[in-house]
Write a structure and sequence with these properties.
five-stranded mixed β-sheet, 645 residues, 26 helices, mainly alpha, disordered C terminus, disordered N terminus, elongated
Length: 645
């Protein structure tokens, strides 16, 4: 281990040393920290009556005492090797400690009080079953009293501090006592480091009430939050960051979410304290808080639906405890999600919905997850929706019911909103419509997907969500190919969601020739084709009639001009020769309206003939493919006759 001796001579029989993990070189910020320590070391040593301090980088350790450890174990008894017989017995749980009064009583106020109340002054037995930290913490305090070497760090600081407080090892009993040294170590070393603060906070969960009452939790949370709010370019301490593609080196800048992995190992209540404190400052972007929640969920809520909760468990009690703990974690994560849209990815939200269904969380938590997922559904990609189905009673490959539930949540929110720009609202639901139709094309390949689930999801979308039905037709066509044994009723039920009028000419042409479609759908397609043809012919006829009417109007105008001219000549002749002409000029109506009526009658007659032909084909003994073929031939013949007319 690399160490830096600060050059103090030993002044007491036991002292203190501070160690940190080794590193290969010292960057500039470490050199500055060392200079700071050198300037303040005399005051620090004078306060603690220490012999020397050794500083190395990263995690910090404090070493107290210099005597060897002489504790021995005989069955369930711990004793100290000494020529002096034991006169103090401490009972903690199932272990008995055979100790001596002379090193313990001068430093422990509680033991002074308990022994003074004892009737037998020669050999006192005390029960300390409720000491925080148990026998390990008590043994640290006892070794300190004997002057034996003990190493303190963030891993055992909490238990040692709480036990020392319990035993009354304060300044009132002796100057420079154990509690005071631990407090200085906390404020000067642990809280100054990033990982030291996190590890210390994590160890408070074992004795949470004591840690909270003594202020350890609050001090650690404040230290951690203060470092999280530090600008990334000022971060000089070590941290854990294992994102894919990130290579940690001195030249690369510190990522904004550098702190998320280290705090993801904390207990959920402690993690909640930190996130709530961060949110109260309003100094971090919601995306960073969402990333911290994401990392924490990945740490504590892996894809449990893959293997179930029973894997690795030894009893049903452990399964239940694990399930309850995961429920509590999920509920806390959902309650901490920022209100800002986009703080979580849609894929992660959908995964949380899937986990919530598996764990059976409260309805409030599930409703909030569905609301968050639905509000961001329009931003989802197709891969985000392809969540595996883990329900054993359902053999489908994908969780279609989950997608349908999220879609319904989106539609409820979409109907309630009052957008300033209607085009944005329409674009939003159209994007969701395209996404769902693309999803249907993927899940329709599943051999276990029922017609009911397929149509239910497709019909959940309102008509305004689809500008055309081309993608829906593709999904239906894929489903019919993957399920060739469908009954006629199932085919009709599946194809009734298809609107032939919203198909493009290319797709409609393909559908007319599709032998997988039921006859009813083919007839509807043919009828619509004929209607389109008649509309085009009607449009051409109307154009011709308009042209004829314009020609006739010009002829009438010429006749009227001739009439006026002839009338003028008549009056002039009558004035000159006295003759009176009673000739009457009568204009006959043109045949344009008669032509139009004749064309309409012809079209109606042709449609009647076609319908009768289709009816005869449907009642014939031909199979559906032959019927469809005959109907197409009949439609083409009728169309040709219409053109000839």
């Amino acid at each position: 281990m690399l160490s830096i001796d600060c050059g103090l001579n030993m002044s007491r029989s036991f002292g203190i040393r501070i160690f940190v993990e080794n590193c290969s070189s010292y960057p500039a910020h470490v050199q500055q920290n060392l200079e700071s320590w050198k300037k303040n070391r005399n005051k620090f040593y004078e306060l603690l009556h220490l012999e020397r301090i050794i500083i190395v980088t990263k995690m910090k350790f404090m070493k107290l005492g210099n005597r060897p450890d002489t504790f021995i174990t005989e069955e369930a008894t711990r004793s100290v090797i000494s020529d002096v017989p034991s006169d103090l017995t401490i009972q903690i749980n199932n272990i008995s400690y055979l100790l001596h009064k002379y090193p313990l009583l001068p430093k422990c106020g509680l033991l002074q009080q308990l022994t003074s109340d004892s009737e037998d002054s020669s050999n006192v037995t005390l029960n300390l079953h409720d000491i925080p930290g148990g026998e390990e913490a008590f043994e640290l305090c006892a070794k300190y009293c004997y002057g034996m070497t003990i190493n303190l760090s963030a891993h055992n600081f909490v238990s040692a501090f709480c036990a020392a407080k319990y035993l009354g090892m304060t300044e009132k009993v002796e100057t420079g006592n154990f509690v005071m040294k631990l407090e200085v170590f906390l404020s000067s070393c642990i809280l100054e480091g990033w990982k030291d603060s996190v590890v210390t906070l994590q160890n408070t969960r074992r004795i949470y009430e004591w840690s909270e009452s003594l202020g350890i939790i609050q001090k650690c949370v404040e230290s951690i939050v203060d470092k999280i709010l530090t600008p990334p370019h000022k971060v000089s301490w070590s941290y854990t960051y294992t994102r894919p593609g990130y290579q940690k080196n001195r030249r690369e800048s510190v990522p904004k979410d550098w702190w998320t992995e280290d705090i993801s190992f904390l207990d959920v209540d402690l993690f909640r304290c930190i996130v709530m404190a961060i949110k109260s400052t309003n100094m971090l972007q919601p995306q960073l808080i969402g990333e911290a929640l994401h990392v924490y969920a990945c740490q504590w809520l892996p894809d449990i639906t893959n293997t179930g909760l029973s894997e690795g468990s030894t009893s049903q009690v452990e399964d239940q405890d694990s399930s309850d703990r995961k429920q509590r974690i999920l509920q806390n994560i959902v309650s901490l999600v920022p209100a800002d849209k986009g703080s979580f990815s849609v894929k992660f939200l959908l995964r949380l919905v899937s986990i919530s269904n598996f764990l059976g969380v409260s309805q409030v938590t599930k409703a909030e997850l569905l609301r968050l997922s639905g509000s961001q559904l329009e931003d989802a990609a197709l891969d985000d929706l392809l969540l595996p189905n883990r329900v054993t009673s359902d053999q489908t490959s994908y969780d279609i019911e989950l997608v349908q539930t999220v879609l319904e949540s989106f539609l409820r929110q979409w109907k309630r909103q009052t957008p300033t720009d209607e085009s944005l609202s329409l674009r939003s639901i159209n994007n969701v419509g395209k996404l769902i139709d693309s999803y249907l094309q993927v899940v329709s390949k599943d051999a276990h997907l029922s017609v009911k689930k397929m149509t239910s999801l497709a019909e959940t979308l309102p008509g305004i969500a689809r500008t055309d039905h081309d993608n829906l037709y593709k999904a239906i066509n894929i489903y019919l190919k993957e399920h060739p044994d469908l009954s006629k009723m199932d085919k009709k039920h599946l194809c009734r969601i298809l609107d032939c009028q919203k198909l493009s000419p290319e797709v409609r042409s393909h559908a007319v020739k599709n032998d997988q479609l039921p006859l009813r759908t083919v007839v509807q397609l043919l009828f619509f084709e004929q209607e389109k043809g008649l509309e085009q012919e009607r449009g051409n006829t109307t154009t011709n009639i308009k042209d004829r009417s314009s020609d006739q109007t010009s002829v009438v105008r010429d006749d009227m001009n001739k009439l006026k001219l002839s009338t003028n000549n008549h009056h002039s002749s009558k004035g000159k020769g006295g003759r009176n002409y009673d000739d009457k000029f009568q204009l006959r109506p043109e045949l344009s309206f008669k032509i139009r009526e004749s064309a309409v009658q012809e079209m109606r007659k042709g449609r009647k003939i076609r319908d009768e032909g289709i009816s005869e084909i449907q009642h014939s003994n031909l199979n559906p493919q032959e019927k469809a073929k005959e109907i197409r031939i009949s439609g083409k013949n009728h169309s040709n006759k219409g053109r000839e007319r």
